[in-house]
UniProtKB/TrEMBL annotation, chain A:
Gene Ontology biological-process entries: phenylalanyl-tRNA aminoacylation
B5 domain sequence ranges: 277-354
One GO CC term, this protein: phenylalanine-tRNA ligase complex
Protein name: Phenylalanine--tRNA ligase beta subunit
Keywords: Aminoacyl-tRNA synthetase, ATP-binding, Cytoplasm, Ligase, Magnesium, Metal-binding, Nucleotide-binding, Protein biosynthesis
TrEMBL record, chain B:
Localization: Cytoplasm
Transmembrane parts of this sequence: none
E.C. number: 6.1.1.20
This protein's encoding gene: farsa
Enzyme kind, highest EC tier: ligase
Name this polypeptide is given: phenylalanine--tRNA ligase
Record-stated family: Belongs to the class-II aminoacyl-tRNA synthetase family. Phe-tRNA synthetase alpha subunit type 2 subfamily.
Domain Aminoacyl-transfer RNA synthetases class-II family profile: 229-470
GO cellular component: cytosol; phenylalanine-tRNA ligase complex
Keywords, comma-separated and alphabetical: Aminoacyl-tRNA synthetase, ATP-binding, Cytoplasm, Ligase, Magnesium, Metal-binding, Nucleotide-binding, Protein biosynthesis
BP-aspect Gene Ontology terms: phenylalanyl-tRNA aminoacylation
Length: 563, 470
């Protein structure tokens, strides 16, 4: 989600519609004042700007729409107010092109770098802010918080090429970093920035490496120590005319994409070096587009539609062939289907005739879900109310609270839970039902609840090492334990499942020991001689651990054997 | 039932009076407490239109206990006056009388008597006038007779101040004949009984009318959860449209099937620790279809099948990482791969099941929710087909503005071709959450009231059946 300033030339509804047509979503129309007052209260917002802000959702891979310049250009071309730009690489008017020399030492830390020069730029405060903002957005998105790519921008007139991208031990690097007054070694910088709310997030990328990446000019001036900080010497200002942009990376493809974005958003003509991706030409047929979209347009019309999406296209005259130029701004176009999608956007999704596929199929239910659906209906008819609990819970819920050791459950464990509620996947439905009762203690007794849902168990025979198991669990909570009620529900469930009461070829229950249940009040359920679950009166300690005060009986069985 | 004697007597009185009777008067005529008459009125009202009774309230003055004594024996001051003989009375003697103290000061202020303090043998009281008129007694007698209207308000208030009089509000009924007036009352039955049915006596009996304003007795019942009721309806819609249900009972999925097979690059933000739950045990998946895996690796890292690819170093270690699936599309991928391993036949698939996101929680977001997904695979499907099928689906939902509810699209060739699906086959798919339409349908603002143990069971008990299109 990104914020843009956008001059109010369209009514809000028109702009909303334009965004929709262009494949974007206008999320919110607001102002800085409104945002601050929403988050921090009216008093804080009093001095803030009330210039209207449009908050627009941009597809994740459309880096070209991340800044105002790119978005405005895209929309203007789309509305035929501007010709689709053709980006060109130009040589400097005088002198040799700049060079960036990459030394082999960088292989140990950050092996790739690409660079470009933007000449004769005129910065205004707004343009300058937008330039910095674009860098930051790219850093957060495609650059994966600078881990894949880091961007450095410099005032070319303060330095002289050729430039050297190398890597050195941190103790050997010393320079005055951006916005500081004295020189620091790289080692000192890393400890200095530990307390910097912004930069501390990037330190881990190189912290443990034996050498740190560093870029010098021909006089030994430090441009930057990527991906952490630039040198102070080369910083760009509103007066900067020529900008040197370097992207260092662990992923060369992304470095090229990022550099393309940085240069194309601010200038149609630029100089660049290394093997920057320029324009890719691609041939496809109008029949392909017509066929995939479900329209019937002429080759010329389709070429026009694509051109409106900044994909300069022309009919070659050979059959229905179209030549499409994919500009460096559109790194997201990697297949003909992406071109097809742009043709559909330009044609207007709402203008496409809706058709019904002739696909003839016969529907089938998944047998386990069919059984579940039917059983749920009849269990509700038996007077029990359906609960719906989370599949994730704490270790305590399925372990200690039930009087079990977590190591003895077959639970799968989550490595990155944000809170204890998401430590494991449940191995039993019982804790969820008991927690539901605890949250509804004000309701009149008895409480009769059931749930038919999946638990997750480790299972070495599966490709992922775990499987779901569908369970039926019910609890009865009242002033008396009501074992006979829960037992009666089991009998009813067996009746519904056409299993008769008999040892051997029917079902029966048999006394069992289980630490979750009150001693002597637990039985195991056997169906055709195999154990499918347990029922009984819960142990008072278990009941208390779920913050309950009344006796409670419970039943939990596996329903997959009944398929 | 009220005293039948009183009921009958009341009815006889009502019969004789043309314009009705007052219940208070009835009580005094019958010599019973007013409440007994009120009881009789109520029981007659319950029988229907035998009588009609309008509640009215009236105020009247009533003598207090002291006032009644005065009406009988005269005011204290008058009694003081009459107890004093011509030769006077010793003051201390007078004070011994019950009315002495109060009567003395009143009689003094009325100037009926005087005290001779210097009289030998102590202070002595003498009459100062020959005769008196005891106005207090006269007024009280008037009030007692019910002729209080002859007195002025000021005089009544004066008596009230002396606690001789109090004002009483009486609620009474004005009783007149009803449309089915009768002096003979048959006892009404409350309910039809098996005996009455057996002996036919119900034919002669009158039955007490029911109160149709009251609520009935709630049935003992179980209830289905509203989200599951909506799930049932969505299943129904898909089945009506000929979609086959996918087996989605595998919450644990490998990153390979959840991301890589869908052509989602390994550095994609969705694969971040902040968005996805990874497993520590079992941490890795081990079995993959090897040839397919190689094709997936190639299309990511080098391209192919008409694609540039993402051009990065694709790692099996990343694909092996087990997660809690972030969408049911992982199952769709498995199903489409399976489909590609046999001779292609067109399919329509659906699923509704849980998915998991390691997100920040708020009133509308939980770490797990239900995803509804529809998939159609056939030769030559177009965007027009996608729009058409979505239109049919959302029409069945009764939703006009559906663009904001979910996502839809055509699966990329980089996903389908490595699976081995034929070149001309397109796969269209769409998805939405089950929770959002349910919250809209049942007017629930906080998702925790709907899903999870903090559910409001009363809401579950009270929730209506789910008809999505109405």
């Amino acid at each position: 989600m990104y914020l843009f300033f956008f001059y109010l030339v369209l009514a809000d509804e028109e702009f909303d519609e334009l965004c929709f047509e262009f494949g974007l979503e206008l999320d919110e129309i607001t102002s800085e004042k409104e945002l601050i007052s929403k988050e921090q209260g009216d008093s804080k917002a009093s001095g803030a700007s009330d210039v209207i802000l449009y908050k627009i959702d941009v597809p994740a891979n459309r880096y070209d729409l991340l800044c105002l310049e790119g978005l405005v250009r895209g929309l203007q071309v789309f509305k035929n107010k501007l010709d689709a730009p053709r980006y060109t690489r130009v040589s400097p008017v005088s002198g040799q092109p700049q060079r960036l020399i990459i030394t082999k030492e960088t292989a140990a830390v950050r092996p790739h770098a690409v660079a470009a020069v933007l000449r004769n730029i005129t910065f205004t405060q707004e343009r300058y802010d937008s330039f910095i903002e674009l860098q930051e957005k790219l850093h957060q998105n495609i650059c994966r918080k600078r881990s894949l790519v880091a961007i450095g921008t410099h005032d070319l007139d303060t330095i002289s090429g050729p430039f050297t991208y190398t890597a050195k031990p941190p103790g050997d690097i010393c320079f005055k970093p951006l916005n500081q007054t004295k020189e620091y070694t790289a080692t000192q910088l890393m400890s200095l920035y530990k307390s910097d709310s912004h930069l501390k997030h990037y330190l881990h990328i190189i912290e443990d490496k034996p050498v740190y990446p560093i870029i010098y000019d021909s006089n030994g001036i430090v441009l930057s120590m990527p991906p952490i900080i630039n040198g102070d010497h080369t910083k760009i200002t509103l007066k900067t005319k020529n900008v040197f942009i370097e992207c260092t990376a662990t992923d060369l493809t992304k470095a090229k994409i990022v550099l393309d974005m940085m240069v194309t958003m601010f200038k149609v003509n630029f100089t660049c070096f290394n093997n920057l991706i320029l324009i890719i030409s691609c041939l496809l047929s109008s029949e392909f587009i017509n066929h995939k979209v479900g329209i019937n347009e002429s080759t010329e019309n389709i070429a026009q539609l694509l051109t409106r999406m900044c994909l300069l296209s022309r009919a070659t005259g050979v059959g229905d062939e179209i030549e499409v130029e994919i500009p460096p701004t559109r790194s997201d176009v990697i297949h003909a289907c992406d071109i097809m999608e742009d043709a559909a956007i330009a044609y207007g999704f709402n203008n496409i005739t809706r058709t019904t596929p002739r696909t003839y199929t016969v529907a089938n239910q998944f047998p386990l879900n069919k059984l579940t659906e039917l059983l749920r209906q009849d269990l509700a008819a038996a007077g029990f109310t359906e609960a719906l609990n989370f599949a994730l819970c704490s270790q305590e819920d399925i372990g200690d609270k039930l009087g079990k050791k977590i190591s003895e459950t077959r639970a799968v464990h989550i490595s990155n839970p944000k809170t204890a509620e998401f430590q494991v996947a449940r191995t039993t439905l019982l804790p969820g039902l008991l927690k539901t009762i605890a949250a509804n203690r004000k309701m009149p007794l008895p409480l009769k609840l059931f749930e038919i849902s999946d638990v997750v168990l480790k299972d070495d025979t599966k490709d992922v090492g775990a499987r779901n198991s569908r369970r039926f669990c019910a609890v009865y909570y009242n002033k008396s334990p009501g074992f006979e009620v829960i037992h009666g529900l089991l009998d009813r469930a067996m009746q519904l499942l056409e299993v008769k009461s008999a040892r051997g070829d029917g079902y029966h229950i048999q006394a069992a020991d289980d630490s979750t249940f009150f001693p002597g009040r637990c039985a195991e359920v056997f169906v055709h001689g195999k154990s499918v679950g347990r029922l009984g009166v819960l142990h008072p300690d278990v009941i208390n651990r779920f913050e309950l005060t009344m006796p409670c009986s419970a039943l939990e069985i596996d329903i997959e054997p009944f398929l | 039932m009220a005293d039948t004697g009183v009921v009958e007597a009341l009815l006889r009185l009502v019969e004789k009076a043309d314009d009705g009777v007052d219940s208070v008067q009835v009580a005094s005529r019958l010599g019973v407490d007013h409440q007994v008459v009120v009881g009789a009125v109520k029981s007659l009202q319950a029988l229907g239109d035998v009588i009609s009774a309008d509640l009215c309230s009236s105020k009247h003055w009533e003598l207090t206990e002291e006032g009644t004594e005065i009406a009988e024996q005269g005011s204290h001051e008058a009694r003081v006056f009459s107890s004093i003989p011509l030769e006077g009375l010793v003051q201390s003697e007078l004070m011994k009388l019950s009315f002495g103290k109060i009567g003395f000061s009143k009689a003094m202020s009325n100037k009926w008597i005087r005290v001779d303090k210097t009289h030998e043998g102590g202070p002595r009281i003498f009459r100062t006038v020959d005769s008196i008129v005891d106005q207090v007694q006269e007024k009280l007698l008037l009030l007692q007779k019910g002729s209080g209207s002859e007195l002025e308000e000021k005089e009544k208030n004066e008596l009230k101040k002396r606690k001789l009089l109090s004002e009483v509000t009486v609620k009474s009924y004005w009783i007149t004949k009803g449309s089915s007036f009768s002096t003979t009352i048959t006892k009404q039955e409350t309910e039809l009984t098996p005996e009455m049915m057996a002996n036919g006596s119900w034919k002669e009996k009158k039955f007490k009318p029911y109160n149709f304003e009251a609520m009935g007795v709630a049935p003992d019942s179980g209830h289905l959860h509203p989200l599951m009721k909506v799930r049932t309806q969505f299943r129904q819609i898909f089945l009506e449209m000929g979609f086959t249900e996918m087996p989605t009972n595998n919450f644990i999925e490998s990153s390979f099937w959840n991301f890589d097979s869908l052509f989602q690059p390994q550095q994609h933000p969705a694969r971040d620790q902040h968005d996805t739950f990874f497993l520590s045990d079992p941490a890795l998946a081990h079995e993959f279809p090897q040839e397919y895996l190689q094709r997936v690796k190639k299309v990511h890292s080098e391209g192919g099948f008409g694609s540039q690819g993402y051009k990065y170093d694709w790692k099996i270690e990343e694909a092996q990482k087990n997660i809690l699936r972030t969408h049911t599309t992982a199952v769709s991928a498995r199903m489409l791969y399976k489909l590609a391993q046999q001779k292609f036949t067109p399919v329509k698939y659906f699923s509704i099941d849980r998915v998991f996101r390691n997100e920040t929680l708020d009133a509308t977001h939980l770490a797990e929710f239900h995803q509804i997904e529809g998939v159609v695979a056939d030769y030559g499907l177009t965007l027009g087909d996608l729009m058409g099928i979505l239109h049919q689906f959302f029409t069945k939902l009764g939703l006009k503005k559906w663009v904001e509810v979910g996502n839809s699209g055509i699966f990329r060739p980089e996903m389908l071709l490595p699976m081995g699906l034929p070149e001309g086959v397109s796969v269209i798919a769409w998805g939405l959450s089950l929770e959002r339409p349910t919250m809209i349908k049942y007017g629930i603002n906080n998702i925790r009231e709907l899903v999870g143990h903090k559910v409001n069971l009363q809401m579950v008990y009270d929730s209506p059946i789910c008809r999505l299109d109405s």
